[in-house]
Fold:
Amino acid sequence: MPYERRNILSSLPPTGPVTKRICIAILAASILGAVTGRRMGLGPSFFDYRLQNILDLELWRLVTYPFIETTPFGLMLGTLVFWLFGRWFENAYGSKDFLRFFFLSAVGAGVIAIPLSYILNIFMLFEDMGFAQGPDVVIDAMLVALAITAPNANVLLGFVIPIRAKTIVYIAIAIELISALLTGASTLSISLGGMAMGYLLTTGNWRPERLRNLLAHLLWQQKLKKRRKDFYVVPPDEKTFH
Structure:
């Protein structure tokens, strides 16, 4: 479809109220958190995502971590990218559904990352830190949602190189893996959690009936594959299967 091939960041709609307020909240919370951290000791470390603290029932972190950034570059880049994607998604989904998508993606990613972090630490050659801050996780969810709904839409990588949405998801995972192997530390679990939430919220496969139908379909496909192994394709001059 011509719509899918166009640049997703061209002809952007006006900034919606939810996108605008979330961007303001990220800027305000990050700056205020840095100031209060220096003055009163109650800083960003009290609000970002830390796996061990979540397990200690500091559950507010699941909601607050997307609004906290501790580096100037991370704050500017994260807010800018969220603003670019957020205005498009809010226009497509509507303000109410986009706000729901934002919080469900953030909270769901944090929950999924808990078991995923332990699994990665057992099987991978690096340590998953179980740490996150800023809207990057929600951006990961939006990328997957875009890859599902408009897989051939172009996203400007580095604001210069046009790459299809479904391709940039693989690039994001590859960057996480390479960084983890080089440094020995990773935030892969929370990133994969965000991508999983993007998939679940877009497809609706988190619903029990959808999940049941999906599992039934996969089981049926496996049965078909098993049956096909019992047949042999023969040359055209032969008239029977054997």
Notes: The chain has one domain: 12-226. The longest strand covers residues 154-157.
